Amino acid sequence: MTHNPVVRRIGDKYVIYYTGTTYSGERPSPGNPTTETSPLKLEAHHGERIGIAVADSPDGPWQRFDKPILDVRPGTWERYLVSNASPLVMPDGSILLYYKGVEELRKNAIGVARATRVEGPNERLTDTPFDVGVGAEDPTMWIENGRYHALMLDTDRNFSDKEIYYATSADGLHWKTEPNPVAIPKDYRWSDGAPRRMSSTERPQILVQDGVATHVFIATGTTINGQRETWNQAIPLKPESAVADRAAWWRDARFGMFIHWGLYSGPAGIWKGRPVRHDTYANPYAEHLMWLAQVPLSDYAQLATRFAPDKWNAREIVAAAKNAGMKYIVLTAKHHDGFAMYRSKVSHYNVVNATPWKRDPLAELAAAAREAGLRLGVYYSLGRDWEQAGAYNESKRNTCDFPNATPEDYAKYLEGKVVPQLTELLTNYGDIGVVWFDTPEQTTRKQSIALEQLVRRLQPRAVVNTRVGNGVGDVEEMGDNQVPARATGRDFEVPATMAESWGYSELDTALYWKSSTRLIRHLVDIASKGGNLLLNIGPDGRGAIPPAAVERLGAIGRWMASYGESIYGTSASSKAQPDWGRFTQRGDVLYAHLFEWPGREFVLPVDASFIGQVELLTPSGPARVTWAESYGASVVVKLPAAPPDPHVSVLRVTLK
After folding, report:
1. What are phi and psi of 242, to 5 degrees?
2. Which one-letter DSSP state was computed for residue 415?
């Protein structure tokens, strides 16, 4: 029996690599069928090895070699069979032969051997399989842009529901995967744009033309009219430069509004007349009230019966965000208390069904954001849900109502509530710009990948943050109010509060509020490192933005009206971080942000030979300033005695 053929042109010959075995046992019959675990299946595959045949033409005739070029090795991880060859011809003429090795049926892994001639001998390059190839089969390998690339079938379901995943290597021996390596899931879009879910995607084969991978061929199938149908399918590949960058708009935005609003906004950090507290908080997070005060679900749910915010106005909130210079908004669609701040058919525990207000604030924000040209994002608390027994975690869970919850309940919670509610959010509110997960807790890597894949199916242009867990996601989410010391090397976002609490809190008195100057400098600092600031507001129980937040949004908006060009669309500067402020850059324009006004002269650490002109940005427009070459790589800039802005002044340096 021979199967799994792969054809390569090597020198002036065509070579077929195939899997072969000798089997002389029983034939399958209706009374003795071949199944996944039957003796027939075991015997048919046992001892498979890799053979070759050569020809002068792809039409043949083919000359088969008498012996396999790669055989099983008794007593090793590939003692049961070796198969599924994927040869790579190297520039020096040698051949790297990647293959599947099996220790016992259903225990697969990927290894590699090398030969200087087609017929061998093949020398194994490692005694163990690749770490990223354990549990995989059907490897297809290629070299492009100086790197090794691989597609493999996730047979052991380490990352997916037995789908095709991708790995890369610098040397062909040491491989790595992205946090979400799934490349070809079972549900993907066809050429007509419609998504379809297949029952399988397997046996990938890559087509490389002129050094570039242009197509991948897969075996796939599904049930049609009650019958299982299978076929081969070709998927054309695009160069990376032609693939839309879904985070491009987000990267240009640099500034967004976070909105924490829910049942907790009414108590405002006070339960039964007493402020909530916890030793880990400078001032307690009011949105954690249910956990901080250990409020039983039956008592906490009574807050819904009194939730009737008469001052909520989605257009006013969106206008406040836009006037502050923000480009996107993110609403807490479901926070840790498990209460949905949108119309949910999955759970009656939502703002439309459980409150006398009976309005959907997410729908209202979605409409207002579209009108204003802002992107809409949805926050979803993943690993914490104090309304659900299954939301087990080690840090903050509802032990009042669910003292006997176990980690085993978590998967049921994901399937029963998380996935259906995310499907609602990603289906019923138009284009979603950001899916903002929080608190992954017990979420496994495979579960994180599945959630990102769900977003990709329903909102392919949405940006996903890494709090979906396990490093998965487009945007690295920093810790609350934590600004990195330097650029992180990838897109990142800092979620930050104006005071201490995220939800509205009466305990956040004036002492706890950050000044407008500090917030503007936070924005500049974060942008200078290539990140975004997601600045929070916590509307009160009536739906109004607190006056202190209104004041700060106004100050930030006035600053952005004059200096926004130094933030939007900029990137981290390659220049060192100065002690007097920060640099941002867009192309050949460098922005120097001065946190403290230096007086009439300022030493700008830029080599004079690179400078075209220097301007001081002001509310009335840019003003050219004079400068003179100094010692070393710097110039002395002449400035007015007083700064044009009390928070942060900006010099625009146009480079040659």
Report:
1. -95, -5
2. I
Beta bridge partners of 221: 200, 230
State the DSSP string of 20-51: E----SPPPBTTB---TTSHHHHHHHTT-EEE
Q: 42 and 137 in one domain? A: yes
What is the rounded distance in angstroms from the CA atom of residue 106 to the CA atom of residue 622?
69
**Predicted pLDDT at 122:** 95
CA angle 432, 436, 439 (to 5 degrees): 155
Contact in structure between 535 and 326 (CB atoms under 8 Å): yes
Residues 560, 595, single domain; the answer is no
pLDDT tens digit sequence for 468-478: 999 999 999 99
CATH number of 224's domain: 2.115.10.20
SS3 356: coil
Pick from 216, 242, 268: which residue ends a domain?
242
| Cα–Cα dist 78/104, whole Å | 8
Q: What amino acid is encoded at 544 in this protein?
A: A
pLDDT on residue 188: 79
Give yes or no for a contact between 614 and 621, defined as CB atoms under 8 angstroms apart.
no
pLDDT bucket at 62, cuts 50 / 70 / 90 = very high
d(CA 397, CA 389): 9
Which tens digit of pLDDT belongs to each residue from 556-566? Answer: 999 999 999 99
What's the confidence (pLDDT) of residue 37? 60
On whether both 235 and 314 belong to a single domain, the answer is no
Tokens of 32: 């003795």
| 319 located within any domain | yes
Runs of H (alpha helix) within 306-381: 314-323, 361-372
